[in-house]
Task: inverse folding
């Protein structure tokens, strides 16, 4: 078991800088999720930790030991790949025990450890099958089994669920969460799916363009996003952003309004606002509530989606801005009608422009 | 739509095949005023007839072994047995293929057509040496070349070049290389050994001629099989290698557990293709040695052509073709059985 420290980690391919100085502290036994849009460098970062990519600059230590120049096998890591990377010509048993075969373990030790991994993953009945006889979820289980057998200090998951269908993805997500509790090992998990990030992580690292945007627990990130990107990336449907004018600043209280928005005082978490300036006001669709009259926002309904548990309403505000409201419970909103909305100012976010 | 293609295949592939089978049962000549006659298996008997004969030493009236001038036990003359001897009709017209001493006497293996037997033997030696050597070398080259290095395509091109050059041209060039007095091979060998290695007439010496042709043939086609291996290598997913690296597989383990199993189908293909090409050995022989010296480089196809066209005995040539067909078919079936997918 080991913590991991990334200090000023950089990766460049010639003049293309993919990872631009990343600092992350991962504690022993933590489940950390790297999340971000495609091309943000999250997989590259994971592969640098695994040792599959060279580190251009910075320092990577696992368990207090700098491992920059160690080959993958000496880093004490196991990796689960998006494409499973299980060997098609070997049975499940041979696949799971591959690391032990390589290490020259005895037959008895191999049998015991493979059986143990199979029990943890509930796939004892699959051990004699060939990979071609397995479903996607079962294959991923084999890949995870191969990782477990090595008893690594660190598990690395590279988008392990993105090749699975939605229902299976949810099952496997729960399984991976359970596995983490059971094994207590440090796990790093890369995904572009924010639901996986929110549900699995002890700590989320949001990446964009090779730089860390914010590190924190899922709820910290959800409730206190550090910047516009994080605010817009986490949460579904995505947060609404309104261009607003700052009319007054009083300490951390910022009074904002615009053509479609009645003046409202928001508590800013960051500085940099001045009266007469511009700002972005962020409101999560879930925190908007419809009112009969005296709403803070007024818009015309362009589209509605009834999901049963909630109703997503797509509005066009007076100044032409689009606004999404996710309203609790099922309700009918006629398209083309006007709708007044209000929101809790304490749940709104303001970002300097 | 497939009409023209079917017609062409019929005329140039299927018809000749059946014609060859048909001719092999007749005494058809390439050009002859006499009509062909059906002669059954006579051609095959002529080609494949073999017999084993053991000769005991001659004894005198007292039962003692008669010795010849060198003090060796004297045997009755082989010629007297194989030339119109009514006691041994089955050996009539046969010649000694090879023999060995057994006890006081000698055991002879006789063949009706010793040259053809030599041709079969040489062809099998060629196949047995070329198939593993060429396949293995080609795999080695493919592994070396399957890397992302600057200028790697130059090496790919160099190794592939001999494949593009006509085998006839290659054979001519290698005849120069193997030449006893002017050849570059002898020049190099004598230069690096300061004249200690004598100049060898590589193609003119029965003990080196087949080896020289084998070496050249391996070199010539190795690039082709390298490309097939290379295509096989590139179908192996890079993540499998990454998984191997994470698990700590050494270079040899990576090859043993990831590369080689991933090349299974390619290996079968390469093996079958090399074997079939090797059985068809002809051009090199025709250009470099014409089957000589002392029949040491006779091959099945060379014999078929020589008899069918050189001696105008198209029926014997056809019979040889049919024999080759049966050999190649059986070898391929055996290979398929041995390399079958084990469930």
Result:
């Amino acid at each position: 078991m080991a913590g991991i420290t990334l200090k000023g980690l950089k990766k460049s391919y010639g003049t293309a800088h993919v990872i631009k100085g990343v600092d992350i502290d991962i504690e022993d036994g933590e489940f950390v999720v790297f999340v971000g849009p495609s091309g943000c460098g999250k997989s590259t970062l994971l592969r640098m930790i695994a040792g599959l990519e060279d580190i251009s600059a910075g320092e990577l230590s696992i368990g207090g030991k700098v491992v920059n120049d160690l080959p993958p096998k000496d880093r004490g890591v196991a990796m689960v790949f998006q494409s499973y990377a299980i060997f098609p010509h070997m049975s499940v048993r041979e696949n799971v025990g591959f690391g032990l075969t390589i290490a020259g373990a005895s037959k008895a030790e191999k049998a015991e450890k493979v059986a143990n991994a199979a029990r943890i993953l509930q796939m004892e009945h699959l051990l004699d099958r060939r990979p071609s006889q397995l479903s996607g979820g079962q294959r991923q289980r084999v890949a995870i089994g191969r990782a477990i057998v090595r008893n690594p200090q660190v598990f690395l998951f590279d988008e392990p669920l993105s090749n699975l269908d939605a229902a299976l993805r949810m099952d496997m997500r729960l399984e991976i969460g359970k596995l983490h509790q059971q094994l207590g090992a440090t796990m790093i998990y890369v995904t572009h799916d924010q639901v996986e990030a929110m549900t699995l992580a002890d700590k989320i690292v949001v990446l964009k363009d090779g730089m860390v945007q914010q590190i924190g627990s899922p709820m910290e990130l959800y409730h206190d996003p550090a910047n516009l990107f994080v605010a817009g990336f986490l949460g579904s449907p995505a947060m609404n952003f309104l261009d607003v004018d700052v009319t007054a600043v009083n300490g951390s209280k910022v009074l904002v309004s615009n053509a479609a928005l009645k003046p409202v005082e928001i508590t800013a978490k960051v500085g940099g606002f001045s009266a007469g300036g511009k700002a972005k006001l962020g409101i999560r669709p879930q925190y908007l509530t419809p009112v009969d009259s005296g709403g803070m926002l007024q818009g015309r309904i362009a589209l509605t989606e009834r999901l049963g548990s909630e109703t997503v309403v797509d509005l066009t505000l007076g100044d032409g801005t689009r606004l999404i409201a996710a309203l609790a419970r099922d309700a009918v909103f006629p398209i083309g009608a006007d709708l007044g909305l209000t929101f809790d100012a304490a749940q709104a976010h303001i970002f300097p422009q | 739509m497939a009409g023209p293609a079917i017609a062409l295949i019929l005329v140039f592939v299927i018809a000749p095949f059946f014609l060859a089978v048909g001719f092999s049962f007749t005494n058809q000549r390439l050009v002859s005023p006499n009509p062909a006659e059906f002669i059954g298996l006579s051609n095959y008997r002529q080609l494949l007839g073999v017999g084993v004969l053991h000769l005991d030493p001659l004894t005198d009236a007292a039962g003692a072994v008669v010795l010849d001038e060198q003090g060796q036990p004297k045997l009755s003359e082989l010629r007297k047995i194989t030339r119109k001897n009514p006691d041994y009709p089955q050996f009539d017209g046969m010649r000694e293929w090879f023999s060995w001493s057994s006890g006081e006497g000698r055991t002879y293996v006789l063949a009706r057509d010793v040259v053809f037997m030599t041709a079969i033997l040489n062809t099998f030696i060629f196949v047995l040496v070329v198939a593993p050597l060429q396949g293995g070398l080609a795999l080695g080259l493919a592994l070396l070349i399957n890397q992302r290095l600057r200028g790697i395509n130059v090496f790919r091109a160099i190794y592939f070049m001999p494949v593009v050059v006509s085998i006839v041209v290659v054979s001519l060039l290698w005849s120069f290389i193997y030449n006893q007095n002017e050849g570059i091979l002898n020049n190099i060998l004598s230069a690096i050994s300061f004249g200690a290695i004598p100049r060898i007439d590589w193609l003119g010496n029965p003990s080196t001629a087949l080896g020289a042709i084998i070496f050249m043939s391996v070199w010539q086609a190795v690039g082709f099989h390298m490309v097939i291996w290379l295509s096989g290598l590139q179908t192996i997913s890079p993540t499998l290698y990454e998984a191997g690296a994470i698990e700590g597989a050494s270079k040899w383990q990576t090859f043993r557990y990831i590369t080689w199993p991933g090349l299974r189908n390619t290996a079968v293909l390469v093996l079958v293709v090399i074997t079939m090409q090797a059985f068809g050995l002809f051009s090199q022989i025709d250009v470099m040695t014409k089957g000589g010296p002392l029949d040491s480089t006779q091959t099945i196809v060379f014999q078929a052509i020589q008899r069918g066209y050189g001696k105008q005995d198209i029926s014997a040539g056809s019979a040889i073709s049919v024999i080759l067909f049966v050999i190649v078919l059986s070898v391929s079936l055996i290979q398929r059985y041995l390399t079958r997918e084990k469930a």
Chain B has a mean pLDDT of 84. Chain B touches chain A at residues 237, 239-240, 242-250, 253, 257-258, 261-262, 264 (CB under 8 Å). Chain B is about 60% helix and 5% strand.
